[in-house]
Design brief:
291 residues; elongated; 25% strand; 6-stranded mixed β-sheet; 5-stranded mixed β-sheet; alpha/beta
């Protein structure tokens, strides 16, 4: 599978063989055995080029990210022979930094005293290669295909909440469009300067609402505090507000309009071999649904 992924990426047996340090004929035999095992043609070969068949394209889309994960896991195992060290620079937004990254570092760093970490909080889609970050944390739907992405959280949901005192003065919204009549606390994305559109979906119908923002900020924690104080409604991560809903400090509305979506992933360039320090962090953060 790894050999197939290299050929599919290089679109050439010669270049792929050089990368794998094998002969083109040996590599061709390896791919031939794979095609015989599957019973489908994966590569269309000509004297000048190699192209993926439809079956090959589908297999490559599945195999390529997993090959990267396997390589990262092997690197993590090799790191057991050495003491991981060095500085890791990570870009992330505030929510995963507080709820996922910091708790993992609290467990990890006492075990590896030679690792230091620099965290940059940024709501923009940072180019980790250009800005020289070792890795980033973002939602799965925002990742580019040339990155190795490791899931570090389950699926997430958003929630619209307000304080009981707020709803004593205002009726509860029943559909997303009702939010136009409400006072809302919104977040502005720093890099692009855009105010967040509140996104909803129900029965296959997607609705994006530009709310009437009486308070704008760039911090989920500040938005939460404003909601608790009854300033207005806030649209934020459901896991952030769950304790406040359970203790009655906040009331959730439009719950049936807030479906789940892909959770957070730690990602790094597929061309880069992760350092021993990054490999250790990857394994510490990796989300396993059976745990």
């Amino acid at each position: 599978m790894a050999a197939f992924a290299v050929v599919a990426e290089a679109r050439s047996f010669t270049r792929a063989a050089a990368r794998l340090n094998v002969s083109p004929s040996a590599l061709s035999q390896t791919i031939g055995k794979l095609e015989k095992r599957i019973g489908l043609r994966l590569l269309a070969r000509t004297t000048r080029s190699v192209a993926l068949t439809e079956a090959g394209e589908r297999l490559f889309n599945v195999v390529q990210p997993r090959v990267g994960e396997i390589e990262a896991a092997l690197t993590a195992l090799k790191s057991l022979r050495d003491r991981p060290s060095g500085t890791l620079r990570i870009t992330t937004s505030e929510h995963p930094a507080l709820t996922i990254l910091e708790p993992a570092l609290a467990r990890l760093m006492p075990l590896y005293p030679d690792i230091s970490v620099e965290i940059s909080i940024d709501y923009g889609l940072t180019d980790i290669v250009a800005d020289r970050f070792d890795a980033g944390i973002r939602l799965g739907e925002h990742l580019t295909q040339d990155m190795i992405a490791v899931p570090i959280s389950p699926a997430l949901r958003m929630a619209v909440v307000g304080a009981p005192g707020y709803f004593a003065r205002h009726p509860r919204p029943m559909i997303p469009e009702d939010l136009h009549a409400h006072r809302c606390v919104n977040i502005r994305f720093p890099r692009h300067g855009n105010l967040a559109q509140w996104e909803f979906e129900k029965d296959g119908r997607a609705v994006n609402v530009r709310v009437n923002a009486v308070l704008v900020n760039n911090s989920m924690q500040l938005g939460l505090a404003a909601a608790l104080d009854g300033i207005g409604l806030v649209w934020t991560g459901a896991d952030i507000v769950r304790p406040h809903i359970e203790n009655g400090a906040l009331v959730q509305v439009l719950e049936d309009w807030c479906p789940s979506f892909a959770g957070y992933h730690l990602y790094y360039p597929s061309r880069a071999q992760p350092s021993s320090a990054l490999a250790v962090l990857v394994e510490a953060l990796r989300y396993r649904s059976d745990t």
